Every structure is written in C-alpha cells, then in structure tokens.
C-alpha cells in the first residue's frame, strides 16, 4: 500500500498564533538529497521541502498548538496554532518508490542530537519542553527520544493528562438493530460448572549453540546460489559473476573527462555490491506472425539481465547498474596517465574532505534537465579515497563458514611410535625421503612372498580381511565453505586461477602429472600464415598459459615451525585442495599409447627420442644428485654419491598401458607379472568375487556437507578446453596463508 499525504488542510478561523522563544535546531540536520532523480528502474528517492503553507505543515502546526495549549493551561476559547517552527527546524516530504506513484512520509528535522520527528505525537512533548524549560536540559523533556520511552507510553501519558484524546476502544454492547439479543434472558445455572482457566505462552526458544559447534552442517544458501549462477546453463547474455558484498568497478555514465580527455578519464568507480535482481524486458519480434494470434508463438520476446545495486566507495551514492556496466575488481586498474593526472590535480587544487556530499553522476532537476557532470578537479579527491579504500581491502583475506570434517587414520605401529618418541625435532624433507626409502626397501626384501597375494587382491579389488584389525583413530579437521580473498568472494566449488604458470608445474611430466599439452593445429597454422614461424609448439602449448584449480577443500592444518629464537611452535596454515586443469587448445588431441611410451622429457607432444640421463636445471634450483642418481651413472666415477639399490618409491616404474580388448582381471594379472610379482592362477569361479565393491580405505570420510550439490564445469575460453594435469585424478594442495 502506498502512503499518501492529504492535499488540503485549512486552519481554524481566527487562529491565535504562538511562537517559540528558544530552539535546539541545527540546519546541518537538513537532508541534502532534495533533487528529484529518476533512476534506471523508474524510481525516486528524495526529500521535498514543505513550507508553512503546505497542508501537512498546517495540520502539524494546528495539532501541536492545541496540545501545547492544553498542557500549559492557556485560556480556553481560542484556536492555538504554531506561527512557525523552532529556529532551524524544517519539514520535508520523503518521496520513495515509483516516480508516478511514490510513497510519502512526513518528517520534521531540527535537533542535532535527536533523530527526526515522524508524527505530531512524537513532537508534542518536545514542543512542550521548548516552551517551558529555559535551561534547555534534555533530561526534562518527555519525548520518546529524550526520555528513552516507547511512543506507546508517551501517547498514553499525554492521554492521561488530557493533552491528547484517549483512544476509543470497541465496545461489546449489543447493537440497537438487534432487539432479540437485548431481550434475551440468561438461563439460570442448574449446577456448578468448573471454571477452566487457560493461559497462552510463547514456545520456549531452544538454547543457542556456540558458533564453533556444528552438529549438522548445511550448505550456505549464498554459496549454492552463487555457484549455480556461474555453472548452470542460462539464457542470460552475461552470467551473474559478481556476488554480494564484493568490490567491483562500476562504469560511469557519462565518464568524468580528465585534463587530456583521453587516457586520464575516469571511466570506472569502485563500488560494493549490495544486492542484485533479475530484470525481464519484453520487446516485439522482428518478424511478427501474420497468420493470426497464436498463443504458442506470441509476437513479442523476452530478454533477461542482471541488475546490480551498488554503493560507490567514499561517497553516499547508491546506484542501480546493468550487468554490462560492472566488471570484477581484478579485471581493471586505473591506468598510469590517470594516476599522474590525479597527482598533478591534487597538488594544485584543494582537497574537499567532505566526500559524502559528492556524486559522480549528474543530477536531474525537477524540470527534467540534467546538470553537467562534475569536473575532474571536483571528483579527484573522492576518487582517490575510493581507490585507496579498495586497495586496502584487497590486501586482506579471511575464511568463512567453518564446519567439522571427520575421517579415520590408522594408528602408528609400536616401532614407529618408539622412533617418533625418541626424535626431539621434526624430520627434514631429506630425512623423511631417506627413511621412507629405507623402510620401503626393507619391507620389499623381508615380506616379498607374503605380500604377493595382498598385492593381487588389491589390484583385483578383493577386500582384505586383515584390514579390519588395523586400529584407526577418528580425526576432526576444521574446514570452511568459502573465503574472502581481498575484494572477491570465493566458495568451495569455484574454479580459481593459480599464480603458478603451467610451465613451472612439471614442465616435462612427472610420475603422476602429465606433461603440458602442445599447440593445436589451428594455432600452428595461424602462426605459419601470419608470422612465417615454424616449430613453435613449445611456445604456443599449454605451458605458455596458466593453471586453474577446482577448489574442493579449504582446511586449516597445524604445522610445526622454528621461530627466530630457535624454539618450536605450531603455526596454523590454510590449504586449498583440488584437481588442477590446464588450458589446452580445443583441437589438440591426447597422444596415443605408443606415443606416450615413446615420449621424452624435453617438452610437450609426442617424441621418439630417448630420455637423457642428465637432469636439467630446475627453475627452483639444482636437483639433489642423491635423489636423481642411478647405479649405471655411478660406475667408474668415485665422485658420484652412492645411490639406492632399490627403485625409488617416489618414482615407480611406469605401468604398461592396458589393452581394452582384454578383461580387467587378466589385465591386472599381466601388469603384476611384468612388475616381478608371482601371481598364482585363479579359478574361473572366483572372478565373480572380484566384481564386488572394494572395501573403503582406512581414511574413509565420516562427515561431509549436507545438501551439497554437484555442479557442471564452467565453459573454457573460446577455442580452448580444460585438461586435467594429473594421470589418476589426484588433487593438489596450495598454501593460501598462515597465521
């Protein structure tokens, strides 16, 4: 319902005017948004000044004057009216809503320490205080703002003292038009009936739980909405990329021209997304149907877009902008000519620190004529403050929406427990590698025969009955649904870009990481035709582009570190985990099995060269010869460090590619035999058992987000596709930060 204001109100005949002798008004409380501006949605939101001759002013002055007369016992028989408001008081009409039918709210502004008055009953006690208290002590005022009472109490007190009429309550007496009811005689009560007393009380509220206790975790509605907006297929031309409370760049219409009028022009202003809404527009079709009206083929069409409600930084300006006028914060930064022009202007013009009254948009007067946009000198102070605010916020990050993740881990054996108990400090990376290599080599030599059947069962998917006896412990880990990364809102399930380029991530491949993909045929052909270049596969492949991660997990881990004084302490680190994807050319094809077997480590794509035994220098430093040496390379060379006699567990030999025409049971047996494992023959009847589901591993997940949904992968850039970097679907872990 739209609130309206009476258009007419006449003062009583021969009124007696009364004036205020004192006032607590301050003109700084008057509204500043008094110009009628129609936004892109056809709405207005401004304050209109009402003089003393307006109907609302007359009504307030008459009502307040009569109430003050009753409170101060002025002589009766007169119609008392306030001649004017107290000094520096003003009345305004707040227009809000559709431009053709807005809502109206009347406010009286004045006291600097009090809010605005919304009705005559709110202002009457304050007016009485102004007439009666020469000390101007607010403690003597009985209005709701000075006395801290509710308006219901204030109005009741005014009615009790006869200043305002008491509210008339509905009576339960019978109507005159019902004579039968009035002549009804009550029946005498023949027996004593028990009187039932009933009471109504509110349902007790459950006790509030601590914020860190999550008995049953549920997915955040904001997370589900944001992920669906990005991953789902939609008819929107531009998906809703921006999220609530993110900092974005909002396009100015028109832009603020700089001194040079080109590269130093202010085209975008940083803003915070407060809300978003779906906008639906109808438009006639280009080729209307001429064979009569068909409800299945209407002569109009609809288009959908997203409207963002943004608040510009450093100024008090809220604006509704379409999705094609908003870009993410990381997608733009002010160019150097603009920053240079700002420095020059700030050095020659005074800075207006009162930026709240500035608006980068031209105002529209009541006549509908827009005023000219602000000048560059007027805008540079507020714009400099806005980009400084955004730059400061972009330096912080924070985890949000924690939940408890539980999983099982096997307990350490007695031997490993004694070894770890006797160690006073955590092992270094080199010590951990050496100890793991020695332990694995000893286990292979001592239990080769006993582990044969277990290896076969693991390969064939047969549950191991001995694993049920392995003691496990339940571990609870603190995980999070999302984080704030500077100005961006990131949820688990998003695709994020990693700073590490693809050429720095196993550029020649690794046991579990594929080498980067090469360039597609269309890309190579384009470079041959345009630039006359050939043999540029290593420059145009995926190694020249970045890496993206599907963010599956955000977790906190405790890491022992040594501080500057040499003492051990525990540091909390945030890890982001998920599979990595490279951006491959759309027409690039995966190499065949034979090409993969003959692929060398010199670069992407198939090759028939033999692998060189000389390790290449990594971008992170020279490799450790203790880890890369081999028995053949150390023969006859006394300077070469000793190497391990067993194959390194960190780089197992490559398994042969399975033949798709061979059953999986036979393929697994052949693979094990080629690895030197003596596989016993199995009867055909036991193959049915191998098809049973394998038993869950000891580190089985015991808790997971409730109501979590799976989302489609976002589309890759035009001409490219996402390619997994790992061979077996492994996930990578990236350090986000530490505390």
TrEMBL record:
Source organism superkingdom: Eukaryota
GO BP field: silent mating-type cassette heterochromatin formation
InterPro entries per record: Clr2, Clr2_N
Protein name: Cryptic loci regulator 2 N-terminal domain-containing protein
Recorded coiled-coil stretches: none
Bias (Low complexity) ranges: 167-183, 638-648, 680-694
UniProt lineage: Eukaryota, Fungi, Dikarya, Basidiomycota, Agaricomycotina
Biased composition (Pro residues): 649-661
Positions of the Cryptic loci regulator 2 N-terminal domain: 80-146
GO cellular component: mating-type region heterochromatin; rDNA heterochromatin; SHREC complex
UniProt biased composition (Polar residues): 608-620
Region of interest (Disordered), residue spans: 1-28, 162-188, 592-739
